[in-house]
Amino acid sequence: MNRLDTAVLDAPVVVPRDGTEVRSGALAHDLPAHLAAYGSRPGAAEPDELLAAVDAAALTGRGGGHFPTSVKWRSVRAAGPGGTVVVNAAEGEPASAKDAALLQTRPHLVLDGLVTAREVVLADDAVVWLHEGAEATSRALRRAMAERDDMVGVRVLTAPGRYLSGEATGIIRALEGGPVLPRFVPDPARPWTDRPVLVANAETVARVALVARGLPGADSSLLTVVSARHRTVVDAAGELTLGEVVDRWWEPPAPGAAPTALLLGGYGGSWVGWERARGLRLDALRPAGLSLGAGLVAPLPAGSCLLEETARLVRYFAESSAGQCGPCVLGLAAVADLVDDLVAGRLSASGRRLLERHRAEIAGRGACRLPDGALRMLASALDLAEEQGHRHRRGRRRGCSPTRSDLLPIPEAAPR
Amino acid sequence: MSTGGHARLLVDPVRCEGVGICLHVAPEVVRSDSWGYPIVIDPTDARADRQADAAVRACPRRALLRR
């Protein structure tokens, strides 16, 4: 076959619902397979040319923030040489499996991206950042690193397997000798206090590796589609609609069953009603006020309760707080209690007002975005429940008859 | 974000422990949330500037800054 691959993944990758070892799908590339598929990494080209190509591709950070990649890389480059590049593959987003899929099947694309990032930002130190417990991913990464001659000095570091271990300011704080916990950054363009640090998501650097080869790079997105028994990671083209994504890669609990809604982006993303979601193109989410975030697509099957799933996620966020910022620690716990009351159909009128008040006063007041994500997800659920005529009042439910309440996997909270 | 020439008042929420002195020395630019932690308003006049500076100086956790 002479044609070179242009996508990150050429086939879906299946990962168990609980676990991180790729079960089937796209064949894993060792170095010869990687070179046959993509060709070799273009040597130290002019960084300005590469950054212009990244600009032209409109590549944004695939960890979830979707900040323009070229802007971030330029600001680290401008801070001067001698810094660190961190490729973040910690899979901080709980139900996502794209870091696992990427590192287990396309490790060399990620490592090409790491080497390119190191050149562009003039770093003399490079780190791959993983969650503890991601054994298959760690093995695949180390096997791939051993095949290459440009990995001297690249460190593989593991952080406790909790939500915030992949948060960029916490990674930088840890590299500077502190705990792996977010910190307050007055100037987001300079999140470091010592030497410059670029924290780049694994998918983002893999896409830079494509752009460096003159390939499109940013025209598709890695999605994790969550089914009841497994998760499917796909490289989905931007012109696909969410309806097509669900039709192709979601396994419904009963054949042919359609979801009632889907959670889009991540646990801190947005619930979108199915009728609205199905016609939305992946590359047109922003004008619709939505984001692909970290690429999570979690359909809610009929028989699952939107409000129950939301309550579980809010509680998970409250328990995942780093415990540092008062409005997050106290606020999210209070909000989670009120949402539990709402699900139980015993939230009073004053309880509703208190929930409104807490939502308004917590937003934007953490050092990191964990509370904001929790509140955004909650707000989207409350809006959608209203729109769908779904109510839990005075102990009775309208518009919902749940048969199960464990759609979304909730990791056990690691001690902080 | 422009504040018309007045430096902003920022809270480092990691340092802040909700001691609450800022609420007393700078009532025009700091108010309390439900748990006693400060919600700050960016100063827009000289009087608010003075209160913000006083709050920065008074914080025992050094959790407030002008920027």
Q: How would you sum up this structure, described in words?
A:
The complex is a heterodimer of chains A (416) and B (67). In chain A, strand 12 and strand 13 form a beta hairpin. Chain A has three domains: 200 residues, Rossmann fold, CATH 3.40.50; 82 residues, Ubiquitin-like (UB roll) (Roll); 93 residues, NADH-ubiquinone oxidoreductase 51kDa subunit, iron-sulphur binding domain (de novo design (two linked rop proteins)). By secondary structure, chain A is α/β, with parallel strands linked by helices. In chain A, helix 5 packs across helix 8, helix 11 runs antiparallel to helix 14 and helix 12 runs antiparallel to helix 13. Chain B is an alpha+beta fold and 67 residues long. Chain B has a single domain, classed as Alpha-Beta Plaits (2-Layer Sandwich). A two-stranded antiparallel sheet of chain B has the order 1-4. A two-stranded antiparallel ribbon of chain B has the order 2-3. In chain B, a hairpin with a 5-residue loop joins strand 2 and strand 3. The longest helix of chain B has 13 residues. Chain B is globular, with a radius of gyration of 11 Å. The model of chain B has no long low-confidence stretch (mean pLDDT 94). At the A-B interface, helix 12 and helix 13 of A face loops of B.
